[in-house]
Amino acid sequence: MNPRLSALRISLLYLVLAALWMLLGDHWLHMAFSEPAQTLRWMTTKKFVFLGVSALLLFLLLHQQFRRQQATLSALSDREERLNRALNVVEDGVWDWDLRTHRVYYSQGYANLIGLPSERLSDDFLLWENRLHPEDRSATLAAYQEHIDGLSERLDCVYRILHSHGGYRWIHSRGRVERGADGEALRMTGISRDITRQRSNEDHLRQAAAVFEATQEGLLVTDSRGIIVHINPSFSRITGYQAEDVLGAQPSILKSGRQGAAFYRRMWESLLRDDVWSGEIWNRRKSGEVYPQWQHIRAVRNEQGELTHYVAVFSDLSSLKRSQHELDFLAHHDPLTGLPNRLLLRERIEQALARAEREQGGGALLSIDLDHFKHINDSLGHSTGDLLIKAVAERLQTCLDERCTLARLGGDEFAVILESPRQQHASSLAQRLLEAMDPPFEVNGQTIYMSVSLGVSLFPEDARNVDHLMQHADAALFQAKASGRSLYAFYTPELTARARSHVQVEAALRHALDHNELRIYFQPVHDLLSGRMIGVESLVRWQHPQRGLVSPSEFIPVAEECGLITALDAWMLDQACRQMRAWLDTGIALDYIAVNVSSRLFGRGGLEQRVALALEQSGLEPHHLELEITESAVMQNFDQALELLCQLRLLGVHLAIDDFGTGYSSLMRLKRMPVHKLKIDQGFIAGLPDEAEDAAIACAVIALGQSMGLRVVAEGIERPDQAAFLLTHACDFGQGYWYGKPQPAEALLAKLPRNPG
Ligand code: C2E
Ligand code: MG
Ligand code: MG
What we know:
Layout: H1 3-32, H2 36-89, E1 93-98, E2 103-106, H3 108-113, H4 126-129, H5 134-148, E3 155-162, E4 168-179, E5 185-194, H6 196-214, E6 218-223, E7 228-231, H7 233-239, H8 243-246, H9 261-274, E8 276-284, E9 290-301, E10 307-316, H10 318-332, H11 342-359, E11 363-370, H12 373-380, H13 382-398, E12 404-410, E13 413-418, H14 423-436, E14 441-443, E15 446-448, E16 452-459, H15 466-482, E17 488-490, H16 493-514, E18 518-527, E19 533-544, E20 548-550, H17 552-562, H18 565-585, E21 592-597, H19 599-604, H20 607-618, E22 625-630, H21 631-636, H22 638-651, E23 654-660, H23 667-672, E24 677-680, H24 682-685, H25 692-707, E25 711-714, H26 720-728, E26 733-734, H27 745-749
Parallel strand pairs: 16-17, 19-21, 21-22, 22-23, 23-24, 24-25, 25-26
Antiparallel strand pairs: 1-2, 1-5, 3-4, 4-5, 6-7, 6-10, 8-9, 9-10, 11-13, 11-16, 12-13, 14-15, 18-19, 18-26, 19-20
Bound molecules: ligand C2E and magnesium ion (2 copies).
């Protein structure tokens, strides 16, 4: 009902009744009372009755109205209170933005959202805008504006907002604009929710999913009943099973059967007790291949602690195991021959020593070294050298039985460990090994003769630990080599002492080379007929800081053994060439300077280049240089020596064979050698002229030399009668203390012949 109309109706009714009351009342009173005074009195009464009724009516109306109003107000306030309570309870923030005034109503929830106490909550739009994350600001404001402009149906956006306690919170806001009749946006109302935790959970989930997909480990998830519910790509790669093969199945389809029921029982016990299990497990791929994997299983429980899933992570161990095995093999074997290497040999020796001690047994270590293997390598190349090493290894192996282990220690060194208490076994094995080398090797179409030297050390007699045993076998080997190669030698204590001093000399000699402790001495060579000094031989000396001048016979063998001879001879060659050049330049009239060349250096190659370099650097003409090569060096490897001598001769230098008479030269070979001189070994001169044998040899050598067109030098002449004897027998030149001892250049200078004028 229209309230205005009702009010009008009531008012009109009142007006009509009041008018009737006034008109009819007055009329009725005039008729009822004849006395005017009485009529007047009743008319007054009638007025008060009218007033009273009107007041009563007014009261009733107002009373009713006020009661209604009261009821409405209280209902309203009840409702508002309920609404506020509801808004405060929800964690979401509610806001209502008046777009015309830019005043905003923020609920208490909203204040909580940004960490503001309610007393600081204002209705300013900037309260919100100023807190937007700089990176999100423009996009967020644009989303709001879009919706205000009617471009989007509703506001729905996510952004970060500054929290009063510091840091930003992720907020999800949704809202809608209220528009006037003309479509104008009047207000926007909405709610905002803090989704920071949800966001980080989502981030974690995304990361976890990426890890799940990308990890190299296989992953498998089952539900609490053990039904496979999820796998990752690596699972398929490792097992060969695709998702459709395994989802819904049980992990037991992967079982290889290699581990028994007890294994799985223990695994489940641990899983049920601790919720985790890790270990190596053998599974079967789809292809049927059985392989090892390292597996980690964890039970997953929900917030109530109920088991929901099992997650298994595993990595394929097969390639690791394979490479471990390969590495292990490589670490213990020589790649060329496949034989045990030094490391494995040591292990085997250790075991043999322990067994010998336990069982009162014994055995031997045989150190084997190929004789002159370097020559093969240098002359035929390393690939031939390698093939020869393999062939030798095979040949050695044929001599061994189950009591023996053959190892290659590197280069041309081998070793055999023999487990037998009888020394005789060791010597017969050594002999067999030596003889096994007798037939030549056919390598790369070439026939190669190869011999070995052996050193034998016995245990427990000679040594009770690995290092000593190996050292002693090496010392014995050294002894075998020194005694002429293709031999075997047993270890004796004296040998060790010798080996030790050898090592000491070697260290000291290295030091000497580095610290210029070497000196060059010169010994004159005279023409026996004219008595004139025609040349000098250069001889090395070691000016030892404590021991004084050390003779080359003490250190040359060591230098040869350890390879220092190369540097030593190169140094001597340089010094000699420079000295000779200097002498010639100052008018000294010498024909030549002689330099000794080690048999080792001689066999190693590169000598020709070294000589050419020394000549070039000093500016000495080649015919002023004479190289002395011992007879034994030449005869040991005749073909190679011959070639080298020819090359040296082509350089223009002179060549002499030193210590002639001691090296069993064959005349056939001697004839072919492109040398200029023979130097009779001083051993034959010492007995001259009285000892018939020496005299005979000396005479024979002179005659031999002359018959081949060579000049002959006699070494070690200490007395004039020796010189006289040699002259009578037509020896050309002489050298010895009688003419002059080896001495430094300064000491010799005054005696050197000079060009006339
Ligand atoms: P060698 O080449 O036969 O040298 C001759 C040796 O006889 C020298 O000994 C010399 O001092 C010694 N001698 C000379 N005249 C007499 C004498 O009248 N009576 C006696 N008893 N001895 C005499 P040294 O200098 O001790 O050299 C020994 C060997 O060392 C040399 O024999 C040579 O083979 C080697 N040698 C010396 N210097 C060098 C060098 O620079 N390089 C190489 N590779 N070997 C060298
Ligand atoms: Mg000499
Ligand atoms: Mg000599």
